[in-house]
Design goal:
This protein has 77 residues and is of the alpha+beta class. It has one domain. The chain is built from three helices and three strands. β2 and β3 form a beta hairpin. It is extended and about 45 Å long.
Length: 77
């Protein structure tokens, strides 16, 4: 996911939905650097990870669909 601020910094936000090896709640979303000229991703410093908080405008597209709205109405016990 990206927005204007991240594009200017050459970064991208990754939101993890599934994880084969560990608990997906540990690193739910994180920031990676993007070198678009070489098509490479790289780690950014830990201080950069804390700059971006959970934004409502950067939600999962499925959540905004009709099916996502129906899932929000269902109460799981």
């Amino acid at each position: 996911m990206s927005n204007e601020e991240l594009e200017q910094l050459g970064q991208m936000k990754v939101k993890q939905l599934k994880n084969r090896y560990n608990d997906p709640a540990i690193n739910r979303s994180f920031i990676v650097g993007v070198d678009r000229a070489k098509m490479r991703l790289y780690d950014v410093e830990q201080s950069q990870q804390n700059l971006m908080k959970e934004d409502d405008d950067m939600s999962i597209p499925f959540d905004n669909s009709r099916a996502g709205e129906n899932l929000k109405k269902i109460q799981f016990s």
